[in-house]
Structure formats: structure tokens, C-alpha cells
Amino acid sequence: MRAFGIDVGGSGIKGAYVNLETGDCEGDRHLIPTPTPATPAAVGETIAKLLDQAEVSAQTPIGVAFPAPLRHGMVRFMANLDQSWVGANLTEVVRTSAGRSVVPLNDADAAGYAEVAYGAAKGKGGLVVATTLGTGIGTALIHEGKLIPNTELGHIEIDGVDAETRTSAAARTREELGWDQWAERLQKYYSALELLLTPDLFIVGGGVSQRYEHFLPLLDLQTPIIPAQLRNDAGIVGAAYLARLAQEGKFHP
Known about the structure:
Layout: E1 2-8, E2 12-19, E3 24-33, H1 40-54, E4 62-66, E5 70-71, E6 74-75, H2 90-98, E7 103-106, H3 107-117, E8 127-133, E9 137-143, E10 146-148, E11 157-158, E12 161-162, H4 163-167, H5 169-174, H6 179-197, E13 201-205, E14 225-227, H7 234-247
Parallel strand pairs: 1-4, 4-7, 8-13, 13-14
Antiparallel strand pairs: 1-2, 2-3, 5-6, 8-9, 9-10, 11-12
Helix pairs in contact: 1-2, 3-7
């Protein structure tokens, strides 16, 4: 049993078949640079080209992880792609460009769910809070295996400032922060989430999570906090898995 996952990013649009028994990507991973400007029409055409390259059959469930909060496929606001996406419907964009029906998902939700289904949080109960530290901070909340979508908790205010502007991995690079300096900001952020949500587990993803030993041991939290396992495949895997659940009527995006 397999499905196809697509992960739309600011620099590239990638996709692959996913074995839903194991959570592994199968065959080639297809990658096409994100068009500039990344308008709905241009991104839709790129997704159509990717599906053609991968020879995705008409019966295959397709999930698309997208860098924005979505309500029934509608983009509510946009940070990292063209602003013309605001008010556009991702499902309709792909249907127009590729003639295919897809399941639209927030990218952090897709990545977080993948970690629960196959990765660092597999078999864990309670409330799992998955975070991605990158250009911004993405968040996903999964309670007892059920996704609570579009949480956008990277934007909570800490010391009067949008948290991701000071606490993301991009902020660490931009301000040339040492690991200990960055960990002080992470401490404030995760402590705030801990106070608000009382989670059972934090998962930390994003490219910087591959260097987790430099900063996670510096955090002092009551909640266990561990690195993600699926790395760059998380968005693809989560999108594919949730697309299959949607096809079975077990998930309603």
C-alpha cells in the first residue's frame, strides 16, 4: 500500500511515493526548483510536472504539504511564497493545473504527523507537540493520534515579540548566535508552550535538529524533548499518509 507525498518549499518542490506500511520513500525522489515568482499558477504547473515525472497513477492518493495555514484548502496568509496565494484554494489550483485531486495540508502538520506515525513519537500517547526550527517555527499538535491542524504557535509573543523572529534557526544564523545564546531563547519558547499546553512530548525538527546535541541538552523542561527522526522526508511522508487516511474517510482536511 502506498501513496504519493509532495512537499512545497521556498526553494524546491519535492515528491516521492511512500510505503505506508513502513513510512519509507520508495523509488526516486523528484525535486523541481520552486518557480520565481511562486504564484499559484506557476506552483500548480510545477506540481503537474512533478506528478508527470513520477508517473503517478490516477488511483494513487496524493497529499500536498504547503507552507501556510489552510482551511479546506484555502490559503489564509502567506509568509514564504508569493502573496498572490492569499485567498487561493490549493486544491483548485492543482486540479486546474494537473487535473488531479489532492489532499492539502500545512507542511508542519504533515511533518509532525509523520513523526507520530513512523518516527520519534511512534507509540507515544497523550499530546505531542512537534516543532520545526527553520526560516520560521512551524508547529503541529497531535493528541492521541489525531491532528489539531493549523496551530501556528511559532507566532506566540514572547517579551512582546513574535517568537519565530528571534528564536528560529534563521534568527540564530542571522544574528550569529552561539549555541548557548540560542538555547536561552529556545528555553523561553518551549517553556511558554509547556505552560500553555502541558504536553507529553516535544519533538524538534528542521535541518538544525541534525545538530541537536549542541542545544537540546541545554534546555531545562519538565516535558521530554527529542529530535525528529525523518529529517527532510517528513513532509512527504506525512502528506502521503494523511492523503491515504483522507481517502478512507479517516481524516478531513
